[in-house]
């Protein structure tokens, strides 16, 4: 390495002290207001403008409605009608999945989209119910209340759960606790969604095979057992019809996937299936040959349901639990979808604001006979592809659905259930994202493991088990990162003053007589014992090696603290302990580049005094140069003792 | 900054690929065998020697017994008898605290120390029961089984809990899961111990005031209410006697603290108190004047209790829960004590081996009428001060206790309970380590908060609540560190190529046209949204500032990844997203010094291709130099576009 004059050392600074309250405020700010949402409002000087910006902050419609152009309306009309044609059959299907009256699927596509249009900040999100949350509602509520035996209570609990989900979403948004959904990692979501889609497809076998009784469990074992034990009840008519529609739907989907311009083919195909299916049943009276039909749907738009919310019975905890879990799942999907499309079009979606919008739309929805809604990926993608410009497409969809509710519900009388099952299966197959799973395997084995756990947890256990498993394992990974930080030896890259990991840069040279250890993480109670042991082991191994080769014995241990983000009191005790142990082994501990947080705490403790403040260097290069300098100016047979070294002016 | 020739850039290496199984093995090794306990055995070539070293590994007595010298025996005899004189009154007191027959305290000082002498690796640890675990046993078992109404079941459950505690300790040790106790941070232990000591002292008011009925709750409110509601039952004779002994014990403790050489004064004082107290009662018949006495103690050494273990009744889960919680607490104290004294004398204590020793001693103890034992701090400190050399002092203590059990138990008939209360209070006051708490406040506010939570959780709630609170908050801190990593701007330190945090080094200069951001932690799913928002905010703020000052607009964002220990798939997606967003804002993303783990994953993803591999630099200095070079050679009115930059040979 390049030789250095001992007078060039730089001082390590202790950052200026900050009053406790100020630093607490900063920390809370970083946790809750990382994206500084009020920057614009704060920068504005006039109060009237401030109020106006505040209103826009809460109701984004005020901003985009002002600039709304007539040419947008054409695009929004087309996309609105397209998503309505998808929303109607999908809404009915998902309501059936949730064991709720089919009409609820239509109600849920009327009120919530209108609320979102006023409060939401995404231009591409199309509001509606989702399969996974629907199934989860059925699974959770169904455990305690039978939807067939007690449909009224079940329905009211579904509204209550929706209300609680909305309330929770609203609170998370208002309290800026949006980061709670971050606990669902990408890998966990891939596995969880895949598992849920598999389970939902399995549930559809009931409809496809025309079965009337079915297990309430969602795991694959119970479902298959239920299906094969009813082998004699299978209706081939229903099965054949289902396969035909499935083939049609999958083909249209394939075409649209190959040619994104033909998106409308797959968007329209569910409605086409419903129409053809209904006509088919009507003309050949298939309802008498094993093909189950929807039957009568009530005419008229959403009846109020605010008086049906259940807050007193002992089922309220069930509704609360259901609401919270389904609400979080729905939130995660809705926000991810909004963000993805915003990224394509280069605008911003504020997660916390979206939560408030979702919360309001579910609270108001629960007052108007809707159940849990969010921004489903499939519907939003169709909306985006259809060229929507603003949330007006949601308004168009809402009115199209309202017209259906007012005048067209009788047309669904003959719609065969098997068509709905086919629609659900087609939508679900797209959620089993095996390519993403393969990619996870290639990139990160641990993420793949999380994904698999979520998948198998959902498929062989319950949806909740899958969720808990994936969240638990993901969190364990974070703890493991802190608990077992990497610690590696650094070497000098030839002809430079750069020191790097010798595993990553095998050409880097270690220096004789000293070992440089880089700690790759914070020093906390959870890892201080480990770090102490591991540092000890590095020294032992290095000494063994030197002894074998008959080289100069170890004299200095340089700890590179560049990557040590923080240290707690257990960590400081550990460093003091390491320093004492080394002192007894005639080794000198040297610290390189402690960061602001670490330096602040070390300076408050007595650690700096005990190692000597001259032994803290700004860079690894300077620390190594200083040690090297002492090593080679001291006589080889009398190793430089700590007390005897020349004073360096690095302070 | 010093100007650099563009040809000097160094390549960032991708570490050589490792087979999955090998890297998994390495990871597991780091988690479970961080201290490489079998190094000596592995390095040995002969099988016979390997077996010998293996036996020594399991039974450390084989090693030190060989080198045992007669001169050690004198020291061990003195210290053994000293700790026995402390162990007898303390054992009886703590057994009473656990609502167990007093004789159990003596039994527990006979068998377990012998087991530990054979298997333990600490030379200074003195084995015995501890106050906190005793109280915890009483609190947990007492919730479901009343010790007064059903003493037999209560006793058997205590044995069973001890068995389970030992089994868990053994399993943790064998599976090398010793790091589980690391979840108790230093701060949590300070608060928890202080709280437990406060609670134990409060409990002693029962004995001091001669009360016969007392609450089963441990929180301060219930205890004070129980005491003051029985005001008319207070016995002044008992109170006066207690205060006298308390004064005596505290004085002797104070003397020993001031003059460590006089350690024997405080070590002997409990026994002296017991003797004087018993004589006092005997001669003035104080037992008829409100002074409660121990009464009859059975003669003879430990009766077997293996047949009393309860595995079938429905209380087994209670015993299991009690065993696990008390076992972990006992383990944490024992290992910390062993380590502390080992550090003073410069030898090593292997936590996992200690766990096996503790586990065996509790399992065998539970077969021989002992309840939970560990290495209490007070007794071990006396042992150390008395000059013990090896675990023979434990053997001496065990035999001294055995002689007491065989011949001297009748002497304790008249021992007043109030003396035992005084002994406990004196021991407990030493555990309220307010100085450590003040130190925590100075060093680390968060640790202080953890400490306070533990303290108040124990004092106002229950011991379990305090424990859960402190562990929960400590773990939350770890998650918060990962969830909200620091991200700061770096500047150049004049006349060097060193870049540092401009908050810590206010003299560091930022460069115009580029911003250097240092990410101080891993990039995981839990922080990727935050980092994206935060990077965006840094850019917004920087652009606002530049616009105000009319300076050159921002062109480059350099991300210093030196401290990014790892990245997961969510993190990679975030980087890709940031890169896309920046591309649209005409900004160029540059990466500096990605570590081995990060580089490996980035190279497997398409991220490197999308930012261009020429934009990854080995150091911040090189990245900054390259950007600066392009900025100042390109015309100011036509910013260097990504496609138009000169090719740098840094690959």
Give structural attributes.
homodimer, 651 residues, mainly alpha, Transcription Regulator spoIIAA, 2 domains, 6-stranded mixed sheet, 26 helices, 6 strands, 4% strand, elongated, disordered N terminus
Describe the structure.
The structure is a homodimer of 651-residue chains. Chain A has 651 residues and is mainly alpha-helical. Chain A has two domains: 70-250 and 276-478, no CATH class; 485-644, Transcription Regulator spoIIAA, CATH 3.30.750.24. Chain A has 26 helices and six strands. Chain A has a six-stranded mixed β-sheet. The radius of gyration of chain A is 32 Å and the shape is elongated. Chains A and B meet through helix 1, helix 10, helix 19, helix 20 and helix 21 of A and helix 1, helix 10, helix 19, helix 20 and helix 21 of B. Chains A, B: This is STAS domain-containing protein. Chains A, B: It comes from Arabis alpina (Alpine rock-cress). Chains A, B: Keywords: Membrane, Sulfate transport, Symport, Transmembrane, Transmembrane helix, Transport. Chains A, B: InterPro entries: S04_transporter_CS, SLC26A/SulP_dom, SLC26A/SulP_fam, STAS_dom, STAS_dom_sf. Chains A, B: Pfam families: STAS, Sulfate_transp.
Quote the average pLDDT of chain A: 86
Q: Which structural class should the secondary elements of chain A be placed in?
A: mainly alpha
With helices defined by DSSP (H or I, 4 residues minimum), what is the helix count of chain A? 26
Specify which chain pair forms the largest interface.
Answer: A-B, 92 and 92 residues
- Beta-strand content of chain A: under 5%
GO molecular function (chains A, B): secondary active sulfate transmembrane transporter activity; symporter activity
Protein name (chains A, B): STAS domain-containing protein
Main location (chains A, B): membrane
Keywords (chains A, B): Membrane, Sulfate transport, Symport, Transmembrane, Transmembrane helix, Transport
């Amino acid at each position: 390495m390049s030789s250095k004059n001992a007078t060039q050392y730089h001082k390590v600074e202790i950052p200026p002290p900050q009053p406790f309250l100020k630093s607490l405020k900063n920390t809370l700010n970083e946790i809750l207001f990382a994206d500084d949402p009020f920057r614009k409002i704060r920068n504005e000087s006039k109060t009237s403008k401030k109020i106006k910006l505040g209103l826009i902050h809460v109701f984004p419609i005020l901003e985009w409605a002002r600039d709304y152009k007539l040419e947008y309306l054409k695009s929004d009309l087309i996309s609105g009608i397209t998503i309505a044609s998808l929303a109607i059959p999908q809404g009915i299907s998902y309501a059936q999945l949730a064991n709720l009256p089919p009409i609820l699927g239509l109600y849920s596509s009327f009120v919530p989209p209108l609320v979102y249009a006023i409060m939401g900040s995404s231009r591409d999100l199309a509001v509606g119910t989702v399969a996974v949350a629907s199934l989860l509602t059925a699974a959770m509520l169904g455990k305690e209340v039978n939807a067939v035996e007690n449909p009224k209570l079940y329905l009211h609990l579904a509204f209550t759960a929706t209300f609680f989900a909305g309330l929770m979403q609203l609170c998370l948004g208002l309290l800026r606790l949006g980061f709670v959904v971050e606990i669902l990692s990408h890998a966990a979501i891939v596995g969880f969604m895949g598992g849920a889609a598999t389970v939902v497809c399995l549930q559809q076998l009931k409809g496809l095979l025309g079965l009337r009784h079915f297990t309430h469990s969602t795991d694959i074992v119970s479902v298959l057992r239920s299906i094969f034990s009813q082998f004699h009840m299978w209706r081939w008519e229903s099965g054949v019809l289902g396969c035909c529609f499935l083939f049609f739907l999958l083909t249209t989907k394939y075409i649209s996937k190959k040619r994104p311009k033909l998106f409308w083919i797959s968007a329209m195909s569910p409605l086409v299936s419903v129409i053809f299916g209904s006509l088919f049943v009507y003309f050949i009276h298939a309802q008498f040959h094993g093909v189950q039909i929807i039957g009568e749907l009530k005419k008229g738009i959403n009846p109020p349901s605010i008086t049906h919310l259940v807050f007193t019975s002992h089922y309220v905890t069930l509704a609360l639990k259901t609401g919270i879990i389904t609400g979080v799942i729905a939130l995660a999907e809705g926000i991810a979808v909004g963000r993805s499309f915003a990224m394509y079009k280069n605008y911003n979606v504020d997660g916390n604001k979206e939560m408030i919008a979702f919360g309001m739309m579910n609270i108001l929805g629960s007052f108007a006979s809707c159940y849990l809604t969010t921004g489903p990926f499939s519907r939003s993608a169709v909306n985006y592809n259809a060229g929507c410009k603003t949330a007006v497409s949601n308004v168009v969809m809402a009115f199209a659905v309202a017209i259906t509710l007012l005048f067209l519900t009788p047309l669904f009388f003959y719609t065969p259930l098997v068509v709905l099952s086919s629609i659900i299966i087609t939508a679900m197959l797209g959620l089993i994202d095996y390519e993403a799973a393969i990619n996870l395997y290639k990139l990160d084995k641990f993420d793949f493991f999380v994904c698999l756990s979520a998948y198998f947890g959902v498929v062989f256990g319950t949806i909740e088990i899958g969720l808990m498993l994936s969240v638990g394992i993901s969190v364990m990974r974070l703890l493991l990162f802190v608990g077992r930080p990497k610690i590696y030896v650094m070497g000098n890259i030839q002809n430079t003053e750069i020191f790097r990991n010798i595993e990553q840069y095998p050409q880097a040279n270690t220096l004789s007589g000293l070992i440089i250890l880089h700690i790759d993480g914070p020093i906390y109670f959870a890892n201080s014992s480990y770090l102490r042991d591991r540092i000890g082991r590095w020294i032992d191994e290095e000494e063994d090696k030197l002894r074998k080769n008959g080289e100069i014995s170890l004299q200095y241990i340089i700890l590179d603290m560049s990557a040590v983000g923080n240290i707690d009191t257990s960590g400081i005790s550990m460093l003091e302990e390491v320093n004492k142990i080394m002192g007894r082994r005639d080794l000198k501990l040297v610290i390189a580049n402690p960061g602001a947080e670490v330096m602040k705490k070390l300076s408050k403790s007595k650690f700096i005094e005990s190692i000597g403040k001259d032994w803290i260097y700004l860079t690894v290069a300077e620390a190594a140069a200083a040690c090297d300098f002492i090593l080679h100016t001291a006589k080889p047979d009398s190793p430089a003792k700590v007390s005897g070294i020349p004073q360096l002016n690095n302070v």
